[in-house]
Amino acid sequence: MIIDGKKVAAELRGELKKKVTELKSTYGEAPGLTVILVGEDPPSKIYVKNKEKSATEVGINSVVIKYPENVEEKIVLNKIKELNNDNKVSGILVQLPLPKHIDKRKVIETILPSKDVDGFHPMNVGNLSSGYDSSIPCTPLGCYLLIKKVKKNLSGKHAVIIGRSNLNGKPMTQLLLKENCTVTITHSKTKDLKVECSRADIIVAAVGRPKLVKGGWVKKGAIVIDVGINKTDSGLVGDVDFDEVYKVAKAITPVPGGVGPMTIACLLNNTVECFKKAQFN
Ligand code: NAP
Questions:
Q1: 49, 145, 146, 229: which has the fewest Cβ within 10 Å?
Q2: For residue 280, what pLDDT is reported?
Q3: Domain boundary residue, one of 74, 95, 112
Q4: Spacing, Cα 228 to ligand 1 middle (Å)
């Protein structure tokens, strides 16, 4: 089975559109998402454009604030503080990477945890790892929803996560632990990745190495989620050798068209969640 991330993401956006309409009629206003973009990084500009377009399509009030590459750090931090105090802004996202002179950590920690739609604030990271309610980073949330589409009850399953980034691997681990999976988290110093993978019922690869995971690494019937996006001479490929793994896996995400579309849909979901929580405070 090929897991169609485009389709699942479109369904999620459809549900969110309905929710936003309901929220608007109940509270008189729609959720608002403000994205801050610093500099001219071409992929970042494309991501921000796509986020803006998708947010608008579901009825979220979308605002993009752009700064030149050389903007002073304090200008960005002051803008975030202003947005923290603006009731019309439900969610704030600062597009990464940032130029070197801007401290990413300071930026993330300045965003109010209740408006942190990326789920990167230490408060949200801590809440997620404690099993409490929190904003969940968009890409792992998307992976989680795709896995749940294939199998509802994950209790007792062995999941192997490849990659331990704060963005992907670590939050993915927390989400699957919460589902009562036994989770192995692997990284570049893992001794025998092939052996670790061969024991997995679920593999999530978030590495950034083209076609790293081979068919012979994967147990028959495993669910394989490929987060990787790697530009190669033959186009975009994931961290999983799709043609090989497809033959043994029960379900696999393609690249493109798997995890990617879910990331933005989950950002919209997080924005709606932040809005809803703000109404009860
Ligand atoms: P990252 O911060 O560079 O982390 C990569 C992780 O992979 C690190 O933990 C690293 O180990 C591990 N690693 C590197 N080489 C390895 C190897 N040979 N064997 C086992 N582990 C290895 O990357 P990231 O931000 O998590 O992104 C990972 C990939 O996902 C990239 O291709 C990125 O473009 C893609 N991505 C996709 C989406 C989407 O929406 N689809 C969103 C975000 C990212 P160490 O910790 O030991 O260095």
A1: 49
A2: 80
A3: 112
A4: 7
List ligand 1's pocket residues with C-beta within 6 A. 139, 162-165, 167-169, 186-190, 193, 206-209, 227-230, 259-260, 263
Same domain, 57 and 168: no
Task: Give the Å distance between the CA of 87 and the centre of ligand 1.
Answer: 36
Residue 234 exposed, middle or buried by CB count within 10 Å (0-12, 13-18, 19+): exposed
Q: Are both 99 and 162 inside the same structural domain?
A: no
Q: Domain limits at 81?
A: 28-112
Query: Model pTM?
Result: 0.97
Which pLDDT value is given to residue 144? 98
Catalytic residue among 51, 79, 157, 170: 51
Q: For ligand 1, atom 48, which residue shows the shortest CA distance?
A: 188
CA atoms of 26 and 55, how far apart (whole Å): 19
Q: What is the mean pLDDT of each run of 10 residues along the chain (281 residues)?
A: 98 98 97 98 95 97 98 98 98 98 98 98 97 96 98 98 98 98 98 98 98 98 97 95 98 97 98 95 71
CA pair distance 136, 140, nearest whole angstrom: 8
Number of independent structural domains in the chain: 2
Cα gap 177→173, rounded to integer Å? 6
Assess if residue 227 is contained within a domain. yes
